[in-house]
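S.,

Sequence below, as promised.
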Amino acid sequence: MHRNDTMDFSRYDRVRPLLWNGDSLRVLDQRVLPHRQEYLDCRDHAQVVEAIKTLAVRGAPAIGIAGAYGVVLAARAVSAADGAEALARIATPLQELEHARPTAVNLAWAVRRMAAALRAAGVDWRRVVEAEAVAIQAEDLAANHAMGRMGADCLPTGARVLTHCNTGSLATAGFGTALGVIRAGVAMGRIAEVYASETRPWLQGSRLTVWELLQDGIEATLIVDSASAYLMQTGRLDAVIVGADRICANGDVANKIGTYAHALAAKAHGLKVMVVAPSTTVDMATAQGADIEIEQRSATELTHIAGVEVGARAAKVYNPVFDVTPADCIDFLVTEKGVIERPDRAKMTACFGAVSSP
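The prediction came back faster than expected:
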């Protein structure tokens, strides 16, 4: 047994992207980090939708939590005798929230869970719906702590790891998924070096992941996305640890664009690939990665940086924000329910259950 039972989570868990104050949702605006720390005060569901669409809040678990509080704000805007009546009155806001980002399954899951709680609530439906959102946030934090312990236990002592995008406190309720494993690995003495890829085009790695690690006193080395294969070739890495926005029934994983390239390079060089995400990211209703809707974003994300056009003006721009890593590239799939080695359909079904036919 390693030192996971006595790990000081507070030392490596200082950032919170979402703060509920009882009347509004405060969102740490990730678009202006790391140079400024500014909060948006979302006082209605439309402002939550806008924060999600514009990436002020990002990361699948954090998006789900924000969506849950968006339901609370939508419900508070109507009058109703019970939860079922309130639910009927906010059908359109719920649809707007659920479809604010299409790829991350956590958002739809959270909105539907909130709707189910509201449907079953009586005259105290306002209290019930707020308590449900608070519970979703608390459960995610607890899951992250559990995944951190389990994922770190899979690493060799002195591991040198690469992470992609941002999967830390900013992407979750706190502590993080893949970055939570890295935090736990550092605390347990399992991880010796951390590399973060910059993650074009939004630079979540350089702007957010490195910033988070510095808050915790964890040294990180920043690389361009395309440098990872060279680091592997020269023997400087032992594992790739990433998060997920959707995990299919066969173990395929949708994650930030570039993840697949890192995974392929890792497999070619004999490195381990670990995917870390809460069970809310698992979508057993989606059979395989090819069935996932991959979000396409604005061309200006590639052609402009900080509002300034860079490079030659391209005739066309193709900007998928996610890619799919096949299950056979993944060595460890870590959720709060446990670690699945070399995930496949049978192992996924055994852990998460099969989807019933309609």
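The first strand starts at residue 18 and ends at 20.

Coffee later?
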